[in-house]
Amino acid sequence: MNDSWPTEIKLSPDKRTLNVAFDNGDSFALPAELLRVMSPSAEVQGHSAGQRVTVPNKRKVGIRDVRMIGNYAVQIVFDDGHDTGFYRWQYLHDLGARQAEHWRVYEAELSAKGFSRG
Question: Is the predicted pLDDT of residue 38 greater than 90, yes or no?
Answer without folding.
Answer: yes
